[in-house]
C-alpha cells in the first residue's frame, strides 16, 4: 500500500502508515524495565525484518516506519516518566537502537538520531528549556529530525525583535521529511556563537529536496534541505538568555554542553554494530539453508556447515562481534555515569571536568574504531561463506554492507585512531569538537 505524502506542497512516495495501525493497540502500554524495553525493540525488529529487503529496494520515505516506532513507544524510552516516558538510561537506548538496526539499519539510525535530538535541550538548554521540551516531545510522541551538519556553511541567524530567523542550506539532514520537529543550528550574525533551536517541521520555510538516493541507509531521508526565514522565539534559543540575547555561560559551559558529541558518536557505533550482527544472523540462516559445500577442495564435505573455512570464518566473526558488544555496552555505562552524576541544575553540570569528559570520549572513540572495523569486515566478508548466489538482489544480503559503508564515512575513523594514539602515548584527552 503506497501513500503520496507531502511536505510544503512537494509530493513524495511513502508506504501508508495504516499498514502498522494494529500495533497501536498491541503496544498500548510502555515497558517498565530494561528487559521489557529490549523485548519491545526485538518485536519492532521482527516486524521490520519481514520486508526489509523490499523496502530497501523501493527506497520510499519512512513515514510508515516512523509510525511503527511511535506505536512501539521506543521514541519515549529515555523520556521522564512524569510526561509518559520510559525514563531509561542511555545504555538501554543504545541497546534498543542496536536491536532495531539488526533488522533495518535505516530505522536503527533514525531511532538513534531521534533519541539524541530529542534530548538536545537536556545538554545545551537551560533546566527550564529541558523540562519544557521533554514535556512537549514525550507527551505528543513527536519524532525529531535534525538539520545539523557542521561541514556545511552553517545556517545564518539574524535577531529580529523577540525572534531569531534562520536562513541557509544543508546538504544533509536526517529524518526531517517525516519529523514533527526539526533541530536547527546556526551562527548568530555578527558573532561566532552557535544556537540550537527546535522548529516545527511542517512550515513553508523548511523545504526538503527529497534527493537522498545513496547506496545505503536508504530509508533515512538524509537529503538536503533549504531553510528560508524560519522564525523561532528567542525564548527557544537553547542555552541563551532571551533578555540580553547572549549565551548563558553557566548553561553552555564546556565540557558538559559538549556531551552531545560523544553521545551521538556512540549512537553511530551501536547501529553499526546492530547492522553487523544482523548481517551475521542473516548470512547464517542463508548458509544453513542454501550454501553448497565446495566439491573441489580435496577434503570434500557433504554440507557447507561441515566446511572448515566456513565454520572458522563464522566463529571468528562471532568472537569479534561478542567483543564489540561488550565494548559498546561498557561505553554505554560510561555515558550513563556521566549523565547520572552531572545532569540537573547548572551548578551540578559545571562540576564535570575536562578530564572526565575526555576519558568518556575515549571509551566512545574506542567503540567507534572497533565497530567500524568489525562492521565493515563482517558485512563484506559474509559473502565468502554464503556463496555466489547470495549476491542476488532478491537475497538482499548486500544491504548490510551498503548501510555500514555509507555511514562509516560520516567522519574519518583514522582521526579516532590518531586521537586514541595520543591518549595512549601522551595521556592527552581530546578537545571537544563537532566530531569528538
Account of the protein in words:
The strands form 3 sheets. Strands 3, 4, 5, 6, 7, 8 and 9 form a 7-stranded mixed β-sheet that branches. The chain has 436 residues and is of the alpha+beta class. Helix content is 47%, strand content 14%. The protein has 3 domains: 2-142, Orthogonal Bundle (Butyryl-Coa Dehydrogenase, subunit A, domain 1), CATH 1.10.540.10; 146-247, Beta Barrel (Butyryl-CoA Dehydrogenase, subunit A, domain 2), CATH 2.40.110.10; 256-426, Up-down Bundle (Butyryl-CoA Dehydrogenase, subunit A, domain 3). One of its GO terms (biological process) is L-leucine catabolic process.
Provide a quick synopsis of the model.
The chain has 14 helices and 11 strands. It has helices spanning 22-26, 34-49, 52-58, 63-72, 90-103, 105-118, 120-124, 127-140, 260-290, 308-342, 346-349, 354-381, 398-407, 413-426; strands at residues 2-7, 10-15, 144-147, 155-160, 163-170, 181-188, 194-200, 206-208, 225-233, 240-241, 246-247.
Features:
Butyryl-Coa Dehydrogenase, subunit A, domain 1; 7-stranded mixed β-sheet; Butyryl-CoA Dehydrogenase, subunit A, domain 3; Butyryl-CoA Dehydrogenase, subunit A, domain 2; flavin adenine dinucleotide binding; Acyl-CoA_DH_C; alpha+beta; 14 helices; oxidoreductase; 3 domains; 436 residues; globular
Amino acid at each position: 500500500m503506497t501513500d503520496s505524502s507531502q511536505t510544503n506542497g512537494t509530493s513524495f512516495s511513502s508506504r501508508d502508515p495504516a499498514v502498522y495501525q494494529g500495533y497501536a493497540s498491541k503496544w498500548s502500554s510502555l515497558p517498565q524495565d530494561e528487559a521489557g524495553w529490549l523485548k519491545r525493540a526485538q518485536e519492532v525488529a521482527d516486524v521490520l525484518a519481514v520486508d526489509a529487503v523490499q523496502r530497501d529496494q523501493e527506497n520510499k520515505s519512512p513515514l510508515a516506519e516512523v509510525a511503527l516506532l511511535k506505536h512501539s513507544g521506543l521514541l519515549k524510552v529515555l523520556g521522564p516518566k512524569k510526561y509518559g516516558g520510559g525514563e531509561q538510561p542511555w545504555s538501554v537506548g543504545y541497546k534498543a537502537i542496536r536491536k532495531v538496526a539488526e533488522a533495518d539499519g535505516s530505522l536503527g539510525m533514525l531511532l538513534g538520531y531521534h533519541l539524541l535530538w530529542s534530548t538536545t535541550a537536556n545538554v545545551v538548554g537551560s533546566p527550564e528549556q529541558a523540562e519544557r521540551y521533554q514535556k512537549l516531545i514525550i507527551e505528543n510522541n513527536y519524532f525529531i529530525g535534525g538539520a545539523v551538519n557542521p561541514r556545511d556553511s552553517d545556517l545564518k541567524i539574524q535577531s529580529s525583535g523577540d525572534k531569531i530567523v534562520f536562513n541557509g542550506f544543508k546538504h544533509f539532514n536526517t529524518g526531517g521529511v517525516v519529523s514533527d520537529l526539526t533541530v536547527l543550528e546556526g551562527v548568530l550574525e555578527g558573532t561566532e556563537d552557535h544556537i540550537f533551536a527546535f522548529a516545527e517541521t511542517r512550515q513553508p520555510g523548511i523545504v526538503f529536496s527529497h534527493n537522498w538516493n545513496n547506496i545505503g541507509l536508504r530509508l533515512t531521508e538524509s537529503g538536503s534541505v533549504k531553510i528560508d526565514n524560519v522564525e523561532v522565539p528567542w525564548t527557544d534559543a537553547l542555552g541563551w538568555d532571551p533578555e540580553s540575547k547572549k549565551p548563558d555561560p553557566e548553561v553552555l559551559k564546556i565540557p558538559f554542553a559538549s556531551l552531545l558529541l560523544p553521545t551521538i558518536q556512540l549512537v553511530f557505533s551501536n547501529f553499526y554494530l546492530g547492522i553487523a550482527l544482523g548481517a551475521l544472523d542473516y548470512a547464517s540462516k542463508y548458509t544453513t539453508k542454501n550454501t553448497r559445500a565446495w566439491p573441489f577442495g580435496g577434503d570434500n564435505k557433504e554440507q557447507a556447515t561441515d566446511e572448515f573455512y566456513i565454520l572458522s570464518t563464522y566463529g571468528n566473526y562471532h568472537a569479534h562481534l561478542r567483543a564489540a558488544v561488550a565494548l559498546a555496552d561498557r561505553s554505554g555505562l560510561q555515558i550513563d555515569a556521566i549523565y547520572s552524576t552531572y545532569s540537573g541544575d547548572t551548578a551540578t553540570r559545571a562540576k564535570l571536568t575536562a578530564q572526565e569528559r575526555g576519558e568518556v570520549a575515549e571509551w566512545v572513540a574506542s567503540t567507534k574504531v572497533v565497530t567500524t572495523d568489525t562492521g565493515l569486515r563482517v558485512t563484506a566478508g559474509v559473502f565468502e561463506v554464503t556463496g555466489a548466489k547470495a549476491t542476488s538482489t532478491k537475497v538482499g544480503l548486500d544491504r548490510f554492507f551498503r548501510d555500514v559503508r555509507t555511514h562509516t564515512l560520516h567522519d574519518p575513523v583514522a582521526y579516532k585512531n590518531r586521537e586514541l594514539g595520543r591518549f595512549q602515548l601522551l595521556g592527552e584527552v581530546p578537545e571537544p569538537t563537532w566530531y569528538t
